[in-house]
Amino acid sequence: MNYIAWSIACLYVLDGLLLGAFAFEIKSPGVDSISLNGKWNLMNSNSSFSLSADVPGCVHTALQRQGFISDPYYRFNDLAYRWISLDNWTYTTSFSLPAHVRGKEKAVLVFEGVDTISTISLNGVIIGKTDNMFRRYDFEVTGLLQDQDNLLQVWLTSAVIYASQRSHAHTPYRVPPDCPPPVQKGECHVNFIRKAQNSFSWDWGPSFPTLGIWKGVRVEIFNTFRLQSFTTSPKYDADHSSWYVEVELFFNVVVLSKGFVRLFIPLLDSEAEFQLSLTPGQSRKSFVLQVNQNANITFWWPFGHGDQFLYDLNIEINFEGGETFNAERMVAFRTVELVQEPIPSSPGLSFYFRINGKPIFLKGSNWIPVHAFQDQVTTDMITILLRSVQKANMNALRVWGGGVYEQDIFYTLCDMYGIMIWQDFMFACALYPTEKEFIQTVRTEVTQQVRRLKSHPSVIIWSGNNENEAAIATNWFNITVAERPIYVKDYVNLYVDNIRDIVLQEDSTRPFIVSSPTNGIKSEEEGWVARDPYDPHYGDTHYYNYTRDCWNWNEFPRTRFASEYGFQSWPSLSTLSKVSVPSDWDFNSDFSAHRQHHQDGNQQMLKQAEIHYILPNSTDPVQRYRDTIYITQVTQAQCVKIQTEFYRRSRSTIVDGKGHTMGSLYWQLNDIWQGPSWSSVEFGGKWKMLQYWATDFYAPVLSVGVENIGDILIYTISDSHTGEHKVKAKVELYSWSSFDAVCSLESNWTTIKEGESTLVFQRPVSAVLTECGNCTRRSCVVTFHLSSPNGEMIGPQNHMFLSYPRYAEGFQKPNITFTVKDAEIVQNYAVTLHSSFPAVYVWLDVDDVPGHFNVNGFLMLSQSLTVIFGAWRTTTVEEITAKLHVTSLRDVY
Ligand code: BMA
């Protein structure tokens, strides 16, 4: 597969030194670590395939790299290659021990991640089994190792067959759902296996139930002890108004060992030394470094609210035997509270995050797995996505519970960029079994993941599952009244008595909620499964409605916190063309139907589009296909903009007892493959129109225009902490046939307050049109922006339509032409557009040249306009000129 789009060489921030301080793999004193990563042999059950395979890796990647299969994402290959996941596969390697490690006391084989069901043997002896891809496994192999020719084998069982067997063995009652909806073309019973739940298919992704060794493998050999992991948790002591850092060290000890631990943060002039005494067995040691009371601590803030200050914490251990250990870890000081308290004139409770004592509105989206083959996810891919998040003015992501706990580098970059993470545990849209072994493996998974991730300041909340409270409450699986108590009991057992219990024990530095959506405290009062977990008066909500007119903001629930909402669109032709052929490029082709995993998704997109726009009708089929992709992206961007602006302007208002919205995380940021989905960034990193628009609708200070009962209302929303501002709204009306404003209006000066949404302009549409003279609802568009007393423009320019563009009068084909020039900044190109008439949703697409524009999908109200394209690889004026396509709404019909 061609990953050019991903490979931007990670120019941004990957300062080796800085990331070094985040390294989570530990070099323990006295431990020899022998990596077993690299080339292994891979064989299927009847030995008809025998090939070389990388570890970390998976069977699909190996088969593709060795030329046994072509790109699994190509056309219908997900179905053609189903056999791979139905077979059993064995990874084999052999290794010798370097002379200096032979004869040591202990040897442990560490598997950072096995996907998923396996039996592992060393030199013919079974050393263990795995059943959970989210766990690390340490198998003691002392006495089994030879100096040379050790044979290590990992016998993987088909996840699909295992899940089916477990489900059939579960006889007392069913644990639904059995299978995904047929449109997803997936496999059944994924809830019976601790594996990425989306790997059996999802409504935005393919079914590739991978098998493999997806993370590193090593042997650790030692005489006295080994340090397995450590955590660093800055905590605030409110009673003494002071900070301390709790450091926990996890050892595996062979013989009694003694020494000293020294902790210090040079920049805060804080230091402490402790005695350390290790007794044989598993040992967890906790130390507290009191931060110097006189030191001035700079907090870590979410992006847009301040800097992401990170301090270097040094850990030094000196053992009596002379062995030493040194580690550096970046720590950050921040507090997080989830505030659920009564709100005046509103029944229910608030639901918002207070970081360092300040209420913060979460602006962002939901994160899904970056690839079906996790071994192919690179740091570059993660960096591109997280940079896109920050560029779009987002400050938060929810790592959704149907995928994977992300790699360390993901959280490290979020720490550095100030992106707050809402971390789900990996359970989604299903009920789950609660047999002893299942609970046991989940307990280990949760303990390990909390310990792995809790040192990251970016993680601000743990959440038990995705939509499983709602699944029981609103009876997705047709459970009878008589059976319901069994499922509620299982639910409480898994998420409350086990997962919550572990999280509360392991981590007191961030809140935990049991599900999303949930009513929070109210759900707890109702026995953890609320009557209506979507109640807008409590907790968070997920809301989707594809059939109602998305321009009608009255349709949206005025929730406390919108953690999911969204609309689908198709990715660009350049992304799709990598996995399709020209005969597929038709909205009604088998390919278009095959890639759509959401029932009626393609029709829903067009129906929603058709409410507002005339659908593409070019007689050239490929042009019509391109235009249809375009119209789905326009529709998605416009719908999500309207909904997000509604949530942002609801932050400080209460209407009919509802409001005080403090978060909008739309569904979904990224894509797992090249197909239609709710994403704003395509597979490969290309921005859809929605991603460009997010930059504006998530701007720190924003003006929003809406129509309500015949009035034009313009609100200002300010996320800033800089106090009060005076602003006025400058409003202009443009007709579709001229670049000169028909009229200009202004609001009075209004004081806007930090953290509030304020009405700055209100006038009846009829009065505005009369005052303007030459405008009707259909012939003009309203533009507006905020201006400060010294004439500065505050926040982005915005606009609103007074009728749907499909009814626009005087709308002309704009005949946009362009010229491209070198912008004289490395890899930046200036594209100057010339238009004959005002144009709406002007969209620039440079095909497969990776990079993005400074603006895109815009309203063009001037004859000429220059935009900048920043490329992520070397390109030329000629290449951009040849590949650039410009489309505006009036061009597609
Ligand atoms: C939400 C998510 C996902 C899904 C999305 C779109 O409910 O949690 O399960 O992909 O809706 O349907």
What can you tell me about this protein's structure?
This protein has 893 residues and is of the alpha+beta class. It has 18 helices and 49 strands. The strands form 14 sheets. It has a six-stranded antiparallel β-sheet with strand order 3-2-5-10-7-8. It has a six-stranded parallel β-sheet with strand order 29-28-27-26-25-34. Strands 37, 38, 39, 41 and 42 form a five-stranded antiparallel β-sheet that branches. Helix 6 runs parallel beside helix 7 (408-417), helix 14 packs across helix 15 and helix 15 (621-649) packs parallel to helix 16. The longest helix has 29 residues, at 621-649. The two termini are 35 Å apart. Residues 1-23 have low confidence and may be disordered. The structure holds beta-D-mannopyranose. Beta-D-mannopyranose (BMA) binds at residues 202-204, 402, 429, 466-467, 542, 564, 667, 678.
How many strands? 49
- Main sheet overview: 6 strands, antiparallel
Mean pLDDT: 95
Q: How big is the Rg?
A: 29 Å
Spell out which ligands are present.
beta-D-mannopyranose
Separate helix tally: 18
Biggest β-sheet: strands ordered side by side in the sheet: 3-2-5-10-7-8
Terminal residue distance: 35 Å
Coarse structural class? alpha+beta
Beta-strand residue percentage: 25-35%
Q: Which regions have little confidence, pLDDT < 50, spanning 5+ residues? A: 1-23
Shape: globular
| Helix-residue proportion | 10-25%
